[in-house]
Each structure stands twice: as structure tokens, then as C-alpha cells.
Automatic annotation (TrEMBL):
GST N-terminal domain span: 1-80
PROSITE patterns membership: GST_CTER, GST_NTER
Domain GST C-terminal: 85-212
Organism per entry: Alsobacter soli
This protein's name: Glutathione S-transferase
């Protein structure tokens, strides 16, 4: 059985959603950040990076959201979570790379400024610049979704599930964006996903509020 180590509302939400959408047999194991469990010897033995998610398949461990999303999608082909068309395949990979390398990192400059500066003034500057960068990046994502039902191709893919994480972060207290007003295309995607039974189940399990 697959075992997913995750934290509610973290980027691991994308992997949790993918497993549920794929109909996989899995166990979700919560890593309590409030108790710093991600730095515990037991968890570091699983993922020395001290981050979530980590996916365990027997004696094999996989980390990093894009890799896990691809693995889940490719190992459960009947769910159709990875596009078959060569261009849609490439587009899905492009979305995962952008989310991981740019969208997530932009948010981290606001949420985790201490990673990038030590002094109070330095942290404040990182946060201010990070917030402006997030505004720009969020607008780019919204523009890319204009006129589209799904992010990559004409069907749901893991790219959509990953994008839902950052929509949630945009709505959350760190950024506090008015997602419906400022990013309507992205919000339409989030609302579409919120109607899916698998998404509803995962949100209930993680104690999260669905997009509205």
C-alpha cells in the first residue's frame, strides 16, 4: 500500500488529491508541523529533506510534488490524470515545473522570509518584494487559464490539482487575495474542482474549506 506523508493545506495537498482522484489504495499520514515532526529523526529517516510530501511505495521513497504527481498519474493510467497527447503531456509538465519553481517560491518569500534574510529589516523587504511578485505571478497564472476548462488539454490532469493548492494559498491569511475578483479564471477552475467528489473527500479529511 502507498503511504503519503503530508500536512493539511501544505503543497502535499496536491499529492493527496491525486491519490484520491486516481482511486489509489493508500494511507495518509499527517506530519504535524506545529510539533516540528518534519524535523524528527523518524521522519528524517524517510525524507532527509525534512519537507512534505513523501510517498512511500514498499521500500521505495519519492519526494517532491511534481515527481509524486507524475508517479501517481502514470501508475494509475485508468484515471487519466496525465495527458496522452504529446503537446498536452508537455503542457502538463510545464505547469508542474512552473508551479514548483516559481509559484511556490514566490509564496515562500512571503511565508518563509527567514529563509532569505536574517535581520528584521531584511525579512520585511523580502516579504514586501515577495508579495508584489506573487501578485504578478498569480496574474500570469490567471491569464494562462483564460478560456480554458482545464490547464493542460481538455481533461482534468494533475496540473489542475497542483494549481488548486496555490489558489488556496492566495485566498489564505498570508496573502489574503480576493481570488474571485482579481483572479476569476483561476477561481472558476477552483470551483470546478470543488464539485468533484474526490476533492471534497480530501478537503474534509484535511479540515479545509472548499473554494466558493
Amino acid at each position: 500500500m502507498l503511504k503519503l506523508y503530508h500536512s493539511p493545506g501544505a503543497c502535499s495537498l496536491a499529492a493527496h488529491l491525486a491519490l484520491e482522484e486516481a482511486g489509489a489504495t493508500y494511507e495518509a499520514v499527517r506530519v504535524n508541523f506545529a510539533e516540528n515532526q518534519q524535523r524528527s529523526p523518524a521522519y528524517l529517516a524517510i525524507n532527509p529533506k525534512g519537507r512534505v510530501p513523501a510517498l512511500v511505495d514498499g521500500d521505495w521513497v519519492l519526494t517532491e510534488v511534481p515527481a509524486i504527481l507524475r508517479y501517481v498519474a502514470r501508475s494509475h493510467p485508468a484515471a487519466g490524470l496525465w495527458p496522452e497527447d504529446v503537446r498536452d503531456d508537455a503542457r502538463c509538465a510545464e505547469w508542474l515545473a512552473w508551479c514548483s519553481s516559481t509559484v511556490h517560491v514566490s509564496y515562500a518569500h512571503v511565508r518563509r522570509a527567514e529563509r532569505y534574510a536574517e535581520s528584521a529589516a531584511g525579512k520585511a523587504e523580502v516579504e514586501e518584494k515577495g508579495r508584489a511578485t506573487c501578485r504578478d505571478v498569480w496574474a500570469q497564472v490567471d491569464a494562462r487559464l483564460a478560456g480554458r476548462v482545464w490547464a493542460a488539454g481538455d481533461k482534468l490532469s494533475v496540473a489542475d490539482l497542483y494549481l488548486l493548492v496555490f489558489w488556496m494559498w492566495g485566498r489564505g491569511p498570508t496573502l489574503g487575495f480576493d481570488m474571485a475578483t482579481d483572479y476569476p479564471n483561476w477561481t472558476a477552475l477552483a470551483r470546478r474542482l470543488a464539485e468533484r467528489p474526490a476533492v471534497r473527500r480530501v478537503f474534509e479529511k484535511e479540515g479545509l474549506r472548499l473554494p466558493e
